[in-house]
Design brief:
The protein is mainly α. The protein has two domains: 124 residues, Peroxidase, domain 1 (Orthogonal Bundle); 133 residues, Orthogonal Bundle (Peroxidase, domain 2). Strands 1-2 form a two-stranded antiparallel sheet. Helix 3 packs across helix 5, helix 11 packs across helix 13 and helix 13 crosses helix 14. The radius of gyration is 22 Å and the shape is globular. The N and C termini lie far apart (61 Å). The N terminus is likely disordered.
Length: 334
Amino acid sequence: MGHKLFSYFTLLFLLGYCLFAFVLLFPFAYGQLDYHFYGRSCPHLSNIVRYGVWAAYKNDTRIAASLLRLHFHDCFVNGCDASVLLDDTEDFKGEKNAFPNRNSVRGYDVIDNIKTDVERFCPSTVSCVDILTLAAREAVVLSGGPSWPVMLGRRDGTTASQQAANEQLPSPFEPLENIIAKFTSKGLDLKDVVVLSGAHTIGYAQCLTFKRRLFNFQGSGKPDPTLDASALDGLQRMCPNMDTSNSNLAPLDSASAYRFDNMYYTNLVNNKGLLESDQALMGDPKTADMVNSYSSKYFLFWNDFAKSMARLGNLGVLTGEKGQIRKNCGSVNL
């Protein structure tokens, strides 16, 4: 009897060990992401991406915010699948020319350059969406922000939708309740709205996205009365009331446009938020409480931002046999 029990438990142990080894070797077997997905197939991936982002950042510090935004605009439209990187084809109009992205979203060339380097070392192995997800993290770190563990193993989508990008991406002109609804439809929550808005601690916005606050707020013919007077004066000089100024740039965080910190929230507390959608966070008691907390507790924002970015990066991912590993990030494999 004892011998039979021993054999039975030995068999269970061996089966369990084999299953464990199988999952280690093939973490994708059950359609799951894994922190060490490329541990054997492309062990230097993180270093390749880190160097590619650093090289771009060295020549253009604005690229950090651009890569972070590119990642957000990808994941928010039908999930993280690198659809935002696809060029238009005869079969679909892609997301690059959607209103929120056209002549605005940047960083495509950085991802393409990193992809070229990755293909040199690990051909047909790493998806464009995993590269973009890692690049967004490295951009934040280079700007002085937090790092976070990134699960890998996403696969690239095979289509894109300009209409979906127009409909799903939050707009700086939308009421806060609409923006909250768009976040919750993705499985994110109110806290994610406030935390991920904090990405505006770095980067710039075109005057077109906030000019009505300066001259004709809600059709009143007057500036937004909630906007700080000194901020208003500076912005009106930066963005004069004429169409030719629409593409002019203003820092989203005038105190530290290139440094990842919590000054974005301090600006909101002081009525110096640039976008209507940002300043609107102070108009709701729940979001205002969070803004006040993050404005005084930098490390709270630091930690919560890392958690929200990890959640963002796992939205609607393709795994297993779904999607593909694109050879060129701008086009689907033939």
